[in-house]
Design goal:
Layout lengths: L1 E3 L5 E5 L14 E4 L4 E5 L24 E5 L1 H14 L5 E5 L11 H9 L4 E8 L6 H10 L3 E4 L6 H8 L6 H14 L3 E4 L2 E2 L7 H12 L11 E2 L17 H15 L27 E9 L6 E5 L2 E5 L10 E8 L6 E4 L2
Parallel strand pairs: 2-5, 4-6, 6-7, 7-8, 8-9, 10-11, 14-16
Antiparallel strand pairs: 1-2, 3-4, 12-13, 12-15, 13-14, 15-16
Helix pairs in contact: 2-3
Length: 343
């Protein structure tokens, strides 16, 4: 079902009956990058408009055309097939979206379903925590969530609102939820700030101290500090210069020495390892026939289907749902498929 929202955007409800595949599009569904971690994106919605957001999420988005919500049973059905294809062992189901997973109405049910699947050892979730409360945490804990990666970018209330892009963001409440997780839940907690140079440099040491003080990192590292990386379709804070990877890791190592905590992380810290990946039935430059089934994620895009996979069509203004178009494939990496109509 496709609904037009008052904002002029569309809400696409991706159901089994819709004919929209769950593999192929970066904005929703499932992503397999050739490891034992399967990314799960049940929603693209977000309550925040972070000034550094790489996906231009939230109410202040200028580039998005559509938001997506995936039917629970459809997601679980396709996920099970992918787990089986990978050998049904040592799988991490990582719920990370181009928005915030807490906007998914059936998140607790999703976690419960994922945690009960044979071969799934870890269910993790990435969030900024704006929608967290104790009841949701208790329900997620009981459903089998293994770890929350909680993005707190500053402990200062005013700076946190600035970074979140909204005056509604309450970092004091999010701090309370972090403390509740560490104190009262079985799930683990990883504090995952985005380091935005020139804005929250002074906050990073304070966040390290906070994570260590409350007891984050029972099973996994307590912190996963992320480097701000400007993206083509993301937001770019005025005056911010992105650190080089060399500078970023150098500064992390200095903080490691100061606080005696691991900050330069590797895949093996989370049990991530190479694993059989889905075949990619396209080649860059190949011409394909695509059926358009929905509006695309970003303005100027349409969502199509070819060979049973979702394909994002760029430069697709003027094309209509239900039509067929010949397109040239321009991206296939990790089965995230992008093509340009040959018009």
């Amino acid at each position: 079902m496709i609904r037009e929202l008052h904002s002029g955007k569309y809400l696409v409800e991706v159901e089994a009956s819709s004919g929209i595949p769950l593999i192929g599009c970066i904005a929703y569904g499932l992503i397999d990058r050739g490891t034992n971690v399967i990314q799960i994106r049940p929603t693209s919605l977000c309550p925040l408009s972070c000034i550094f957001c790489s996906t231009d999420a939230g109410p202040k988005s200028r580039r998005r055309l559509s938001e997506y919500i995936v039917e629970l049973d459809y997601m679980v059905e396709v996920f099970k097939k992918l787990v089986k294809y990978k050998g049904a062992r040592d799988i991490e189901a990582h719920i990370d979206t181009v928005g915030d997973p807490l906007t998914y109405p059936r998140l607790v049910d999703l976690v419960q379903e994922l945690s009960s699947i044979k071969g799934v050892e870890v269910v993790s979730l990435q969030t900024h925590g704006a929608l967290l409360n104790e009841k949701i945490l208790d329900d997620l804990d009981e459903a089998g969530l293994s770890r929350i990666n909680l993005s707190i970018d500053s402990l200062d209330p005013d700076k946190a609102k600035l970074l979140a892009g909204t005056k509604e963001y309450d970092v004091e409440k999010v701090k309370e939820m972090a403390e509740y997780i560490a104190r009262s839940c079985k799930m683990d907690l990883l504090i995952a700030p985005v380091w935005v140079p020139g804005i929250n440099d002074d906050d990073i040491p304070k966040l390290i101290e906070f994570a260590l003080k409350i007891g984050a990192g029972k099973r996994w590292p307590p912190l996963g500090i992320q480097k701000y990386v400007p993206h083509r379709h993301g937001r770019k804070p005025k005056g911010v210069r992105s650190m080089s990877w060399r500078e970023f890791y150098s500064r992390l190592r200095a903080l490691e020495r100061k606080y005696s905590v691991k900050l330069v992380l590797r895949p093996e810290d989370f049990g991530i390892k190479p694993m059989r990946r889905l075949p990619i039935p396209f080649k860059v430059g190949e011409k394909v026939r695509v059926k358009i089934v929905a509006p695309g994620w970003l303005k100027g895009e349409m969502l199509g289907v070819a060979r049973g996979l979702a394909v994002t069509l760029v430069d697709a203004r003027g094309l209509s749902i239900g039509s067929w178009v010949k397109a040239r494939v321009i991206r296939t990496k990790d089965n995230i498929l992008v093509a340009r109509p040959m018009i």
